[in-house]
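A quick aside before the break. I want you to see a complete sequence-to-structure record at least once, exactly as it would be stored in a machine-readable document. Don't worry about memorizing anything.
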Amino acid sequence: MVRAYSRREYIRKTPNSRIVQYDMGNLKDEFPISLSLAVKENAEITHNSLEAARIAANRFMQRKAGRYGYHLKIRTYPHQIVRENPMATGAGADRVQSGMRNAFGKAVSVEAIVKRGQRVITIDCNKTNFIDAKTALKRASMKLPARTRIIVDKGNELVL
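That is the input. The structure line, written in tokens, reads:
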């Protein structure tokens, strides 16, 4: 794993996260079934892939369960700031650049560092939308760089 680089007060230009919302759907009601997408190994998930997973799951659930038939929550926040040392290419690039000397890099994006078994996305729904929630989490997992699995957090006896 990488060492934490997240103290924004010491970093000049901090890139903003692209994640628009962390809670979607019906935020008021309590749902009997809760499913989560958990990662199988330690990983670093960029804010772009988290946003793509959120859009995929939210769009599918909105189509199947309606606007207020579910509650989707993103449970990780991208704190880690990623740096990049861009290398110049083309004619005369060797005279412009000093290679890996003083190669600290510029901040380019942010990512969430997740541990093995940590839940990334959670969907609460009714019994009728259980299969749809599972499919939505499966679609969201395709956007993430790590291997994942779906866990039933609540309502296990209702599903069987």
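Two observations worth writing down. The beta strands are 23-25, 33-39, 43-46, 70-74, 80-84, 106-114, 119-125, 148-154. The two ends are 39 Å apart (CA to CA). We'll return to this after the break.
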